[in-house]
Backbone:
């Protein structure tokens, strides 16, 4: 992230990241509601993995939750059947969702723009119906985990590791030739193709990374809540939340989905705890207000503030 | 102050019954506090109760984080589970890990008690029990021929569990009494079941057992009538228990059966001293007065859950979850909602379901005979003879 107006910016960002990681790593020592941090990290991974595909390539994936649900089921099957340790389960879930992403990319990534978005909705519905009627995965009843899998500390640290891995991957993608190629596709796919960028390859690659991390997030969530069934695994509001968080924070940026997830989940949680009978109404009003005030998300807004203060803008900010 | 924590699905899929359950609990808390609170003998005084309530949006991941909030930040004395089985299953590991009693009033799945939790206690009859009284009642007809039974039920965890248990019960307890001639689940979002019902009619089934939720239950009855099929009895889950069932269907609703956890005309006080100093009729009147609507059994079982907690606190004289949980093992009493007694796993074994039947536009309790307000009308009158 080049920032001419702020030479110390890079160092500052590394320092801030290290501090955040240190605070999160020691959180169990001073914060007892670990599940709150767990789910904030879970949402960060969901939003950032959505951003890896949609933010970079510009293709809106309304079926992002399919990777999450698939990962949840793979993790649940392995854990409930005592076939693998939870760590292996989480990893296998990620790989399964990455494989699913590869499989889905073949038919769907031939579609452009709105047609891809519509197809992704269809994939979501189809997956739900399959799992709802498939006896091997418990059909409508779903799967519950035995009580031995309630391990809050192990769950938390695995979640933290996956979140760190997801952000590191997103960073590397965004600051490599691969990321540049993906952004070229987002801005002008035909032009990108004409200069020799293999658009299908890069889109597929982005979707595979997107699926990998969403799948791991799904398995981690199931490890934590100990039950999975089709309505909660393939709930479209999970996709919509990931989209809202990404848009709120700033799509296409590394920090945007992180900010969006933290703010939206934490504000939502705060409102639920304090106004349980009206929290969704208040949250809705806040979201509308923020979107009106910051149409390019919080990262875009930060850029505008910096510009007003006489600094330079971001090289890779905003977009889509 | 005795603090009792819970999340309820106040929005999302389970919102309607979540609100009903919360209303039932709030009425209980209001009545307890109006009478001076609960006497805790180890503290030598009565304490008022305070409910701490959050909205889990019918979402298991929210349940997981809210119950940790209740246990670690709010430091509640006791927990009450959210309405519905999947949400109860998400709350149970947290309650158990922190040794806080979790009372389930709306999570019927037997799976909740098959995971060796020590602190999870059910007040309602588990799913496996729902169709049992209907089957007992049919056996009681003493027909000379085995009854042909068609099982036709919603593809959801609850209905599947109920019907699998019903099939097992018929086969193991009454061999030779029932022939299961049809056994299929359906998508509850479908708007027409005439194809499957025509198949069922062709099997000559005497009885249809099944259903799922509200809309599908109504559709099944409309379809049965439209194809002119005349089963001798139809017992459906959930839908016929709702007063809207008759309002929507009129005379088509007559003769239809449903299992129920509780009815406003039930009076258990006659056969045992009961706890809580409130009758079913009083509960229904107070509830309607406060919330301006008829309570369903979800509201009653939530109120009764408050009564169960109250009695275990009084009898043990403690606010310690481990002590109160221990006390519940030896409790054996009646509330207006019915019998309370648990197995060591915490599953409810005392409470029994009743069977209701629509008769001339009135919902009557017909089984067990000790609480019946009318006789079982069987077989159903042919469609031609109904006005």
Residues:
């Amino acid at each position: 992230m080049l920032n001419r107006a702020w030479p110390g910016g890079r160092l500052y960002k590394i320092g801030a990241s290290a501090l955040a990681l240190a605070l999160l790593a020691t959180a169990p020592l001073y914060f007892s509601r670990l599940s709150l941090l767990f789910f904030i990290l879970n949402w960060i991974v969901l939003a950032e993995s959505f951003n890896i595909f949609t933010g970079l390539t510009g293709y809106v994936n309304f079926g992002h939750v399919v990777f999450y649900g698939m990962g949840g089921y793979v993790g649940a099957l392995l854990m409930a059947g005592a076939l693998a340790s939870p760590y292996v389960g989480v990893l296998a879930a990620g790989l399964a969702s990455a494989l699913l992403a590869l499989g889905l990319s073949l038919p769907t990534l031939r579609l452009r723009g709105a047609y891809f978005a519509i197809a992704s909705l269809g994939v979501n519905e189809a997956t739900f119906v399959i799992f709802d009627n498939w006896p091997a995965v418990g059909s409508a009843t779903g799967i519950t985990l035995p009580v031995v899998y309630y391990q809050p500390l192990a769950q938390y640290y695995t979640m933290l590791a996956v979140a760190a891995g997801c952000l590191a991957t997103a960073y590397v993608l965004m600051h490599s030739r691969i990321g540049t190629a993906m952004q070229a596709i987002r801005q002008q796919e035909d032009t990108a193709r004409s200069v020799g960028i293999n658009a299908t390859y890069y889109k597929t690659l982005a979707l595979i990374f997107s699926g990998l991390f969403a799948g791991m997030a799904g398995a981690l969530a199931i490890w934590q809540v100990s039950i999975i069934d089709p309505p909660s695994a393939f709930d479209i509001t999970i996709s919509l939340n990931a989209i809202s968080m990404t848009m709120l924070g700033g799509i296409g940026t590394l920090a945007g989905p992180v900010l969006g997830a933290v703010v939206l989940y934490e504000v939502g949680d705060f409102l639920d705890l304090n106004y349980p009978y009206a929290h969704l109404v208040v949250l809705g009003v806040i979201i509308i207000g923020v979107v009106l005030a910051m149409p390019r998300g919080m990262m875009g807004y930060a850029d505008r503030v910096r510009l007003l203060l006489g600094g330079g803008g971001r090289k890779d900010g905003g977009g889509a | 102050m005795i603090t009792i924590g819970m999340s309820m699905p106040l929005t999302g899929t389970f919102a309607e019954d979540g609100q009903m359950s919360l209303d039932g609990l709030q009425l209980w808390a209001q009545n307890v506090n109006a009478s001076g609170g609960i006497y805790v003998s180890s503290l030598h005084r009565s304490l008022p109760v305070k409910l701490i309530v959050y909205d889990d949006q019918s979402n298991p991941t929210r349940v997981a984080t809210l119950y940790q909030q209740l246990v670690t930040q709010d430091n509640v004395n006791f927990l009450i589970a959210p309405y519905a089985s999947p949400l109860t299953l998400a709350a149970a590991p947290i309650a158990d890990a922190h040794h806080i009693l979790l009372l389930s009033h709306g999570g019927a799945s037997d799976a909740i008690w098959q995971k060796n939790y020590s602190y999870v206690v059910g007040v309602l009859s588990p799913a496996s029990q729902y169709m049992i009284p209907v089957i007992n009642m049919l056996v009681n007809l003493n027909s000379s021929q085995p009854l042909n039974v068609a099982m036709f039920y919603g593809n959801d965890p609850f209905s599947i569990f109920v019907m699998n248990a019903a099939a097992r019960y018929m086969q193991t307890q009454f061999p030779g009494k029932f022939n299961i001639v049809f056994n299929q689940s359906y998508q509850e979002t479908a708007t027409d079941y005439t194809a499957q019902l025509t198949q069922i009619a062709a099997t000559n089934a005497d009885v249809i057992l099944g259903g799922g939720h509200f809309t599908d239950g109504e559709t099944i009855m409309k379809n049965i009538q439209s194809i002119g099929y005349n089963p001798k009895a139809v017992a459906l889950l959930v839908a016929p228990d709702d007063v809207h069932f008759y309002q929507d269907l009129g005379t088509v609703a007559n003769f239809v059966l449903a299992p129920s956890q509780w009815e406003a005309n039930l009076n258990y006080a006659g056969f045992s001293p009961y706890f809580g100093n409130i009758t079913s009729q009083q509960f229904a009147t107070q509830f309607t007065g406060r919330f301006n609507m008829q309570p369903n059994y979800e509201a009653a079982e939530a109120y009764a859950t408050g009564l169960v907690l109250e009695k275990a606190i009084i009898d043990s004289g403690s606010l310690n979850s481990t002590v109160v949980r221990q006390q519940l093992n030896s409790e054996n009493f009646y509330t207006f909602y019915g019998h309370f007694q648990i197995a060591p796993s915490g599953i409810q074994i005392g409470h029994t379901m009743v069977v209701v039947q629509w008769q001339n536009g009135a919902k009557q309790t017909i089984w067990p005979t000790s609480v019946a307000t009318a006789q079982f009308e069987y077989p159903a009158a042919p469609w031609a003879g109904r006005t």
